[in-house]
Amino acid sequence: MQLLVLRVLLYIQLVLGLFRYAQRFGLPALDHIFDIHVAIGVIVAILAIIALRSLPSVPNTGIRIAARFFPILPLLLGFGFMANVVPTHYFVILHMILGIATIGLVEAASAQQRRSQRRRPSFAG
Length: 125
Description:
- The chain has 5 helices and no strands.
- The chain is mostly helical.
- The radius of gyration is 17 Å and the shape is elongated.
- It has one domain.
- Helix content is about 75%, strand content about 0%.
């Protein structure tokens, strides 16, 4: 269930981020979207660490480990934007790429988990 919530929040986060970016091209300023985008970013990073923890029935692969901690990267870059430490103009594209990569990693880890939990132990012999 946690993994499903994480996946849904990631797609909501993507849409909110695109709305935020579209303000540069004439979309009216929606400041509440920015607040929600930040809050969901924090929730996603925490939920990824919890939902993708080691489970006895799921192999702890590199993709799973990367998906668990990768959401921290766009979150830190976003906090850099908020603190005016990182120039937003050039690094917004990197922020978007990291966010999309996070979605891909979480989807791959989710698929691995579903496949490994569907497998039943074989009683050959």
